[in-house]
């Protein structure tokens, strides 16, 4: 099975958002990854419900919404209404993670859990079978264009081992600093989905760049 690719709209040209979304529609991208930042959980503010709704109005690809926010439970329904097919919340922002995942599931969306670079895989052991997707942050969350954290490879291996040990069907998504140099090794370690922002949108031909990532075997 080839790797799946989720270009991050955070790196797009916001002045031409419709054309950027239409470009992704025409590409081999599997998802459109949308980073929601509140300036509290992470030191940056991106966009929220109205822009997500605008993206939905033009998108033909599934929306993969990554909530880098405090109190995500308060916004699950709103982002589902904006077309989110995957909703990822941060482990670090959810004191009652099982309840939050139940809430996402009840809305008919896929349940995602994102974890920061310092957060241990072991903390997901008791709940991995209730998670559809784990988003491993391979940079510190908040800003695009950061350098990939090398320890991510080992973390992917440990997560894949946990998934297999528990008999879960959880997918592994990598978010941050992904490129054609590290993507093959991430796949080899067990990654299923690659989020790529700056690498895609800053390239000369984003459609070809997405195709190159997706054709890796």
TrEMBL record:
Cofactors named for this entry: a divalent metal cation; Zn(2+); Fe(2+); Mn(2+)
Record keywords, A-Z: Carbohydrate metabolism, Isomerase, Metal-binding
Positions annotated as active site in the UniProt record: 35, 175
Coiled-coil region list: none
Enzyme class per UniProt: isomerase
Family annotation (InterPro entries): Aldolase_TIM, Ribul_P_3_epim, Ribul_P_3_epim-like, RibuloseP-bd_barrel
Functional description taken from the UniProt entry: Catalyzes the reversible epimerization of D-ribulose 5-phosphate to D-xylulose 5-phosphate.
Name the record gives this protein: Ribulose-phosphate 3-epimerase
Taxon lineage: Bacteria, Pseudomonadati, Bacteroidota, Cytophagia, Cytophagales
Gene name in the database record: rpe
């Amino acid at each position: 099975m080839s790797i799946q690719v989720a270009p991050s709209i955070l790196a797009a040209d916001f002045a031409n958002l419709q054309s950027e979304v239409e470009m992704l529609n025409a590409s081999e991208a599997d998802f459109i990854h949308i980073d929601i930042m509140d300036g509290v959980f992470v030191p940056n503010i991106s966009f929220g419900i109205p822009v997500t709704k605008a993206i939905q109005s033009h998108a033909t690809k599934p929306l993969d919404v990554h909530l880098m926010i405090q109190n995500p439970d308060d916004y699950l329904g709103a982002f589902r209404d904006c077309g989110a097919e995957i909703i990822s919340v941060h482990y670090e922002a959810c004191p009652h993670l099982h309840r939050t995942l139940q809430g996402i599931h009840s809305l008919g969306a896929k349940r995602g859990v994102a974890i920061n670079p310092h957060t241990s895989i072991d903390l997901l052991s008791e709940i991995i079978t209730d998670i559809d997707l784990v988003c491993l942050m391979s940079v510190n969350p908040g800003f695009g264009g950061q350098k990939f954290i090398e320890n991510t490879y080992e973390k992917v291996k440990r997560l894949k081992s946990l998934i297999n040990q528990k008999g879960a069907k959880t997918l592994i998504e990598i978010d941050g600093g992904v490129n054609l140099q590290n993507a093959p090794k991430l796949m080899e370690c067990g990654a299923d989905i690659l989020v790529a922002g700056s690498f895609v949108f800053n390239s000369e031909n984003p459609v070809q760049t997405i195709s190159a990532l997706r054709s890796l075997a």
